[in-house]
C-alpha cells in the first residue's frame, strides 16, 4: 500500500480537477489536472522504479516526458484560453 501513495496523490488531483469541471469551473479544473500531471512527472522522476507503483507504465524517461508534456500543455491551455466570462 505504501508504494501506491504517489499514485494516489496524482489521482486525488485528477479527481479534484474532475469535480471542478463537473461544477462548471473548467479553467480551474484544467489547471489542477495539469498540475497533478506535473506532480506525477516529478514524483516519477525522483522515486525509484521499485517504489513507483502504478505511476510506472513504461520506462522512467517515457513516463516522465509524457506526463510533463501533457501537464505542461494543460497548464498552457488553462492559462491561454479566454474565459469568456467563466472561471
Would you mind describing this structure in some detail?
69% of the residues lie in helices and 0% in strands. It is mostly helical and 87 residues long. The mean pLDDT is 89.
Map the helices and strands:
Layout: H1 5-22, H2 26-46, H3 60-80
Helix pairs in contact: 1-2, 2-3
- Total beta strands: 0
Instruction: Kindly report the average pLDDT value.
Output: 89
- Which blocks of ≥5 consecutive residues have pLDDT under 50? none
Strand content: under 5%
Q: What is the string of SSEs from the N terminus onward?
A: HHH
Keywords, please?
87 residues, mainly alpha, 69% helix, 0% strand, elongated
Q: Quick gist of this model?
A:
With 87 residues, the protein is mostly helical. Helices cover 69% and strands 0% of the residues.
